[in-house]
Design a protein that fits this description.
This protein is 70% helix and 0% strand. It has 122 residues and is mostly helical.
Length: 122
Amino acid sequence: MESWQKKWAYNKYWIMAHSQQAYNDIRQLAKNNDWSTDKEQALDKIIASTELIEPTKQTLTTAYQHVWGYFKKICTTDEKKTYLILLTKLTPENNELGSFLKLLAIKYKVTYLLNSRLINEL
């Protein structure tokens, strides 16, 4: 896998949790898998600028719903109930849902998530 793809895989959900606009900008850069040094620099700049953006309830909700997709068919009924309860309580200040999703990533050994910035920084 090319370095930009690895960088994108690592940062994808973290970016989504901070800024939908930054996420969309990176998707546009990656369009058609036509990568260049200029695009690499643009990616680095977007990631750096996103570090200055605080997550909102909406951006966290969107990112966590994407992450939840890895578990929704394999989790227990109790885990689904917990997810739904924590989702309703989610705010940037009350981020129990992120910790819960991290535990699920560990429990179900979802390597892609375990190697992601979002899960690693929780």
